UniProtKB/TrEMBL annotation:
Residues 29-300 form the Protein kinase domain. Residues 318-348 are annotated as: Disordered. The keyword ATP-binding applies. This is non-specific serine/threonine protein kinase. Residues 318-329 have a biased composition (Polar residues). Residues 338-348 have a biased composition (Basic and acidic residues). The keyword Protein transport does not apply. It catalyses: L-seryl-[protein] + ATP = O-phospho-L-seryl-[protein] + ADP + H(+); L-threonyl-[protein] + ATP = O-phospho-L-threonyl-[protein] + ADP + H(+). It comes from the Eukaryota. It comes from Zea mays. Keywords: ATP-binding, Kinase, Nucleotide-binding, Serine/threonine-protein kinase, Transferase. It is an enzyme of class 2 (transferase). Its EC number is 2.7.11.1. One of its GO terms (molecular function) is protein serine/threonine kinase activity.
Length: 348
């Protein structure tokens, strides 16, 4: 069986929720129940009649169309099931209301643990970080190569990597481009919510591709290894991208300086080196030189030793390389626009 397909989820959908049921579950979309907000809508914690917890994404406005058309779009996404994708529970289409219902993730998002309200708790040891990296890669592998229809995510970032009670990763917000209302600037939404994760070609041409997803995933790998944000401030004015900081250190083999200090030196040096090398390869400025997710998963798992050796010998990692280490151009690089709080528990 091809890699990725054996990981398909087997859960069943509750599917159609009434507006009354979701109002009851969220205490009428009470502010105290809000767990995130993004360009497309707000997310609320809820609890349904059987005691199970849900995440309720109430879209600010929906694409022009009937309730049946909305249901049809949701149904397509609902059929895309994988254990490392955030599972749809169902939807609600009632009058102007367009609502998506997901499984609730007890441990919030990867962003919350790396940079947000849970970062001081240091709950992400090295084992968990490796697991999150591999499982997020598996989710993207499935979307790119095995889902029907195949899906380009378009918004890979740490706020869209959700963690369940066992810290297993589930990628959220796949396919939500379908629900962007007519007239809403998709490129502007993406640029504002995706600062630091955008591939150079997306910044130039505004078209999401599988290679753009790979680039964004590479940034997440560098975050997992270093604990740095995608964009960091220096001297409170200048900013620099995480790739700009990591690449010179990797070229000199100074991986111990890359490692997140919160790990307290408790990590596998070989696995850290592998994660950094794969992350930098994924963020290559030339999209055709990036690996595909078919290559990334075995690399991260240590199953492609020959490919890793070849990667280490690439001119990108040569200490005397003339390849620019200035990294990626970013739209409006003047400030660090990573969300102040762990917004968008179920993404943007």
């Amino acid at each position: 069986m091809p890699p990725g397909r054996s990981d398909e989820g087997s859960g069943s959908l509750r599917w159609v929720f009434s507006l009354r049921e979701l109002r009851s579950a969220t205490n009428s979309f009470n502010y105290d129940n809000k767990i995130g907000e993004g360009p497309l809508g707000s997310v609320y914690w809820g609890q349904v009649w059987d005691g199970s917890q849900i995440a309720v994404k109430r879209l600010k406005s929906a694409k022009n169309g009937t309730e049946a058309e909305f249901a049809s779009e949701v149904e397509i996404l609902g059929r895309i099931r994988h254990k490392n994708l955030l599972s749809f529970r169902g939807y609600c289409a009632d009058g102007p209301e367009r609502i998506l219902v997901y499984d609730f993730m007890a441990n919030s998002s990867l962003y919350a643990h790396l940079h947000g309200p849970h970062s001081a708790e240091c709950l992400l040891d090295w084992r968990r970080r490796i697991s999150i990296a591999i499982n997020t890669a598996r989710a993207l592998l499935y979307l790119h190569h095995y889902a029907t229809p195949k899906i380009i995510h378009g918004s890979i970032k740490t706020t869209n990597v959700l963690l369940d009670s066992d810290f297993q990763a589930h990628v959220g917000d796949f396919g939500l481009i379908r629900f962007i209302p007519d007239g809403m600037d998709h490129e502007k939404i993406t640029s504002e919510s995706q600062r630091g994760y955008l591939a150079p070609e997306y910044i130039m041409f505004g078209k999401p591709t599988a290679g753009c997803d790979v680039y964004s995933f590479g940034i997440i790998l560098l975050e997992l290894a270093s604990g740095k944000r995608p964009i960091e401030k220096s001297c409170s004015v200048k900013t620099y991208g995480i790739r700009n900081w990591v690449l010179p250190l990797a070229r000199q083999g100074r991986y111990d300086e890359i490692a997140d200090s919160k790990l307290s030196d408790k990590f596998s040096e070989s696995e850290l080196r592998r994660m950094v090398l794969v992350g930098l390869a994924c963020t290559h400025s030339e999209s055709e030189k990036r690996p595909t997710m078919l290559e990334v998963v075995p690399l991260l798992k240590g199953e492609s030793k020959e490919t890793l050796i070849k990667l280490e010998r690439d001119e990108l990692f040569s200490s005397d390389s003339m390849v620019s280490s200035q990294g990626t151009p970013t739209p409006d690089g003047g400030t660090d626009s990573v969300p102040k709080e762990d917004q968008e528990l179920v993404g943007a």
